[in-house]
Amino acid sequence: MADKARLPLAPFLVPCVVLAVVFAAALGEVLGYSFRTFIPGSLDVGGFTLENFARIGKPIYARVLRDTFWLSFLTALFTLLLSYPVAFAIVRARRPWLRGLLIVLAITPMFTGEIVRTYSWMLVLGTNGFVNALLGGLGLIAAPIQFMYRSIGVVIALVQFSMPVMIVILATALTHIDVDYEKAAANLGAPPSRVFLAVTLPLSVPGIVSGFIVIFAWTMSAFSTPQLIGGGKVLMISNMVYLQGLSSFNFPFAAVLSLVALVAALGTLSLAAPLTKAIERRAALH
Amino acid sequence: MPPRIAAGLRRGSFWSAVSLILVFMTLPAVVVFVTSLSASPILRFPPQSLSLRWYEQALTYRDFREAFANGLIITAFASTIALVVGTAFAYLIERYRFPGKGLIELVLSSPLIVPHFTTGFGFLLLGARLGLARSFVVVVAAHVTLVLPFVARSVYVSLRNLDPNLERSAANLGAPPVQVLLKVTLPLLAPGMIGGWLVAGVLSFTEFTASLYVTAFRTQNLPVAMYAYIRENTDPTIAAISALLILGTTGLMLLANWLVGLERMLNIGDHR
Predict the structure, then answer these.
(1) CA-to-CA distance for A235 and A261, rounded, in angstroms?
(2) Which domains does chain A have, with CATH numbers?
(3) What ipTM was reported for this prediction?
(4) What 3-state class would DSSP assign to A47?
(5) Does the pLDDT at position A75 exceed 70?
(6) What average pLDDT does the segment B238-255 reach?
(7) Which of B13, B21, B93 is the best mutation test for A, with the most CBs of A within 10 A?
(8) DSSP state of B115
(9) Is A265 close to B227, i.e. CB distance below 8 A?
(10) Among candidates B190, B157, B148, which has minimal Cα distance to B263?
(11) If DSSP codes are grouped into helix, strand and coil, which group holds residue A45?
């Protein structure tokens, strides 16, 4: 409002500051604990130490970190490949009812909660689950395929989890592409596949990059899927935090691991803006 | 090949691919529904005979009933507090400039980026320091933090789409700022606020990872109780309760869609 008569700032500011301080204090506690000495068998912690940070260099934790990155990468990649056609369909659907239906089908899985979704995938992928019953019934497999307690099962579930978010990001990017560019290319005689590859796809690269990075960062924080479908055989950093924090009560080391996860997520996301900008600049030069 | 047939084939294969992908996305929910109707306690697909016994078990199991009630209390407080703070936050960001604005924006939006287990662990430690370990206060505070960005975003979008002339004319007619806010701005923001409140409610009610850290048996919500059950049992009780949750959340999302329009809230579509 450009008016001189304005409401005072305080009633809006105070609740926000209070909440921000509470959240910052919670994260501050994690930071504080990461520098304290673990006393086995006690919830109290000892004095200052840097040892907790040194411990993440051990092969077992380094491996968990590497696995976390690799599973997140695979998830982001397959999520992208499966989400693009759906996002494209949503943006280009001409009939409003069709677009509404596509949006509801694509977005609703986002809101059912991770426990419900993870459990659903256990039913689909289990030894006596849907996929094995179907393939076995068709006579395509002699023995059940093992999806549970393996990376493949974890990634399949994580991909379905991540698709709603990816679809929203891609659809937003595709919405902002001017259809006139595509029409111009088509009028100049480009076949539809070439219009897509030479016009639509390059123009949607910023959406692709930000979608990939968001899902990558998001998957690094996934917990219930590796916990239940991985069943202790597939360990991501979240499962390590849980083991150290709520099973061994080693709060200081759990604090270090959750800080590592936080830094990894922040670091990945901070790549998004400059990367997108660099790509847009290169595209503009062409 | 004649171009019309080629175009038809292309369109046909595109839409088949899209349909297959959507089947992949909805398959788990369908399998949950079918499993929940199985009569056998052994998870096996497809069920040999049908019954509603797991629904009865899910609805009468004491841990689930208590966790459901806990979840309602947590969600009611968390989403309502988030609605008040989130509306103030959106208004603040849209209408004011002041030193430290960027910092507050950063801290209050960061729960979207910070892993939920880090947030949950932080609130667990903070609660212990304040002598409130695993009480409802800590659970609600953690949930408010987690759902706030969603409410704020919904209200912010409504605020951006608001016609400033409406507020201006009210002010020109002599309405004091408080009255403009209460009689013009807030009523116009109501759909965005209600939509954000519903989304916040659904997210809080289904929040698992952070809740696992901040709740105790006495304060656990439904997802935490379900997790405990899955670890101990393999019967389809969880399938029944999942089916009910899927129906409930889908209904609420349709309501939010009708109130605000998911397309508008998500900022997609309608570019022509």
Answers:
(1) 14
(2) 55-285 (1.10.3720.10)
(3) 0.90
(4) strand
(5) yes
(6) 89
(7) B21
(8) -
(9) no
(10) B157
(11) strand
Asked if B118 and A30 come within 8 Å (Cβ–Cβ), the reply is: yes
With 0-12 / 13-18 / 19 or more C-beta atoms within 10 angstroms meaning exposed / middle / buried, residue B233 is: exposed
Count of CB atoms situated within 10 Å of the CB of B272? 6
**DSSP state string for A222-254:** --HHHHHTSTTTS--HHHHHHIIIIIS--HHHH
> Which residues 6+ apart lie within 8 Å of B135 measured at CB?
B127, B219
Distance from CA of residue A127 to its chain's centroid?
27
Among B7, B21, B271, the residue with its CB nearest the CB of A85 is B21
Burial B143-179 (b: 16+ CB within 10 A, else e): bbbbbbbbbbbbbbbbbeebeeeebeebbeeebebee
Task: Give me the count of residues in chain A.
Answer: 286
**For position B272, what pLDDT does the model report?**
34
Distance CA B270, CA B29 (A): 29
Q: Tens digit of pLDDT for each residue in B3-43?
A: 788 888 888 999 999 999 999 999 999 999 999 998 887 77
- Burial (CB count within 10 angstroms: exposed 0-12, middle 13-18, buried 19+), residue B235: middle
Indicate the length of chain B as a whole number.
272
CA atoms within 13 A on the CB side of A214: 21
Per-residue pLDDT tens over the stretch B166-192: 999 999 999 999 999 999 999 999 988
H-helix segments, chain B: 3-36, 53-60, 62-95, 101-109, 116-129, 136-160, 164-172, 177-179, 186-206, 209-214, 222-232, 237-259, 262-266
Bridge partners for A45 per DSSP: A38
Query: Nearest CA of chain A to the CA of B52: how many Å?
Result: 18
Q: How many Cβ pairs closer than 8 A exist between chain A and B?
A: 280
Q: Which residues contact B168 (CB under 8 A, 6 or more apart)?
A: A1, A3
CA neighbours within 13 Å on the CB side: how many for B109?
Answer: 13
Chain B hits for A170, CB-CB cut-off 8 Å, are: none
A26 or B258: which leads in pLDDT: A26
A residues 15-44 closer than 8 Å to B (CB): 15-17, 19-20, 22-30, 32-33, 43
- Supply the CATH classification number for the domain B61-266: 1.10.3720.10
The residues near A187 (Cβ < 8 Å, ≥ 6 apart) are none
